[in-house]
Write a structure and sequence with these properties.
Length: about 100
């Protein structure tokens, strides 16, 4: 299994109501390639199966979203999962952060 598949499989395990960071995803597969994780999220061709909207920056800001609808859609999906977003930052970030 390649790096991409490992990252996507790890992301699929994040429960509803939680999110993770690029750094945490990389750490989950014993890597420090945080930027590569970001690139994989950007290139995700299956956002319905691989919930890349759940990946945010380590400082709690939502980051980007290249799927249809952009950042506005990412915020909608996060809120649908029960995650509060204010000024493009996750409210109660530490409580919602999923660590593998």
């Amino acid at each position: 299994m390649g790096f991409k598949e490992k990252i996507y499989n790890a992301l699929k395990t994040v429960p509803k109501g939680y999110l993770t960071t690029y750094k945490e995803l990389a750490k989950a597969v014993n890597s420090k390639a945080y930027r590569v994780v970001g690139s994989l999220m950007k290139k995700n061709e299956h956002p319905k199966e691989i919930p890349c909207y759940k990946v945010v920056k380590s400082n709690g800001s939502i980051g980007n979203y290249s799927a249809k609808g952009g950042i506005k859609r990412k915020i909608e999906l996060l809120r649908k999962d029960g995650i509060l977003v204010e000024n493009r930052k996750i409210k109660y970030f530490e409580k919602r952060l999923w660590k593998f």
